[in-house]
Every structure is written in C-alpha cells, then in structure tokens.
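Field reference: sequence -> structure
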Amino acid sequence: MGVFARVLLQSGEQVLGLAGEDLNLMILPFRQFGFGQMLQGHLPLWNPHNLCGTPFFANFQSALLYPPNWVHLLLPLAAATNWSIVLEFILAGWFTSLWCRGRGLSIPASLLAGTAYMFCGPFLLHMYAGHLAMISAMAWTPLIFRAADVAFERPTLRWTLVGALAVSMSIFAGHPQSVYYTALAVGLYTLLQIGMALRRRQGTSCLRAVVFLTAIYVGGAMLAAMQLLAGLQAVDESARGHGVSWRFASAGSLPPENLVTLVTPHFFGGAEGVPPFGREIYWEVSLYVGAICLALGVYGALRGQRGARRFSTSILVVCLYVQNTIKTFYYASSCSCDDERSEESCEHDDRPTTDRVSACNGRREAWSKPVSCHFARTAD
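Structure field:
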C-alpha cells in the first residue's frame, strides 16, 4: 500500500500507468462505458461508439463480471482504477505467499516470494503499460499452482472449489492468453509432479491428482461460462479468428539475449529518458526479480536440498521453455499452415473485424467519450 500511497490518497484524476498506452487507449474507456451502463441498469452487450458498433460484453477485456472491477460502481473512474490495480498486487503477493507456505517455506521466505512476484518485471511492468486484464489474470496464477500441489497431497472438496474459483476469476479477468499459458504451465508442472510420484511408487495419487485438476478446470469453465461462451462466439469476428501468418505467430517470444535482464533490468533501455532498443517490447521480455531474490535463488540452486534443487531447476527450465515457445504454439494451434494473408492484416491484437480500419491508422477507437485522467509513471 505504501508504494502506491501517493496516487491512492490524491484527490485528482491521476492514474497509475503510462500515458499513450493501452490504459487510456482502451481500458479506461471500456471501464467508463461498461460500468457507466451498469450503473444505469443495463448490461452493455454492444458498444455503439466504436465505428459502426462492436461486441462489448463478448470482448473478454470488458471484464464486467470480474468482481474486483466492481469498485468502478462505487468510486470515480481514476480512483476505482487505482484501487483495482492495488488490489491485484495484494492478491498476487498473498497467493504467492500461500503457495510457498504450502510447499513448506518459512513465513519470512514466503513473504519475500510474494513481494518478489508483486514487483517483478513480468508483473509490475504490465501495470506500467496499462495491461490491467493481464495482471488481473496473473494474480490468480499462484493460487492455481497451490491447488495443483494440493492435488498430490490431500485433495478436498474445499480445494476443488477454491481451484475452480481461481480458474473462473482468471477467465473473468479478461486476458484469455494468460489463462491458456497458465493451463499449459500447470500441465507441465503436473507432469513433473507425476514423475516424482511414480518414482515413489504412488501411482494411485497420480490418478487422483489428474481427476482433481480436471475437476478444477471444468468447474472453473462452468462458473465462467457466461463470459467464456460469449467470448468464444465472438472469436470468429476477431482478427485472429481464421488464422494468422507464421511470422506473426512466432513473434513475441523471449529473445535469448534478454536473459541479461535477470541481472540488469535496463540493459536494453526503458529507464527514465532512455528509450528501449531491444528486439521486443520492454515490458514483454523483462525477467528482473531483484538482486536479492536472484542471489537467494542461485544460492538455493547450489546449496539447497537435492530433491528441491532438481524440482526447482526443472520448473525454471519449463518456465523459460514456455516463455520462448508458448506464444508460437498458442497462435499456431488455431492457424492453417498455408495462411497466405499479408503481414499487414495480422499486425494487430484481438479486436473485432470492424476495428481493423482504426488499427491500420494506429488508433484504437473504443471509447464512448474522452477520458480526462492524468498518468503517474511512478508511485514512490
């Protein structure tokens, strides 16, 4: 709370984030229009202010059913946005600490892990860029991993419901890519757990864990069915609904040289007054977790318990592999290999087909009226 106190306690229109990015180009207009309509007693299925009209509720990033966003029904736009961002940071830290405690770490170690996750480059920088749906979905990831651990310990109905709730919240958050990445990462994590269980001759627990995790994801999808089904129906109207080129599909993976950001976050620019110059967008490929956490991680890898070292090293390799390849797999899995559409038709994000004209002009015309908020690049 102290980190964001200056912005939270101000009475003006200052918002956490970077001006000129997704926050004021799309997210704030979405929140202003969507929750403004809900305050008038309407569920906004359609956005008539964008070109000739576009689906609104079916757009995942409207996130109207995500409970933390309901603060927009109580507070002005700027204050509600800031408080919703801070809430996601609190949830991310709390769930990470809970996961670590479940794995047997001490309270100080768990708190340090939660703090590291809250303020690491892959999480914090997306707030800076205004990717609120992404950080909202990422905040629930540690709780899903905790549920995956419980699957191999002592599955209970309570944890089945908690896991299903976490999955549904990540869907409601509005960033389906993060839901997909998390599901695949949990799948790989589960395979490592199964391998360890089979070495201990615990085959029965493996079957029970698979059933438990299946129930979590099926239950989560059912809880979020209203948003999920509407969003999937709108996919055919999106720019990626019928496949993209291989060049576009393989873009955005972690460049190997960006591993240096584990040590120095601004090696490729991005600091105040220093424009980024790397191969990818600054906030998409920064791995920085802090010098202390990195040093402790290296120490643990060298001096920790043998079993823990092997498991942690395997997880690290899996995470790097996922970061390098998962975007390619995600997009390529829904593409035809002989897609010959031009690159120009693919260089945009998941917006309805009618939004492509404004995309070509470099504009995102998703707002109902101008949003007058100022942006705080830091909150110290």
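Note: The radius of gyration is 21 Å.
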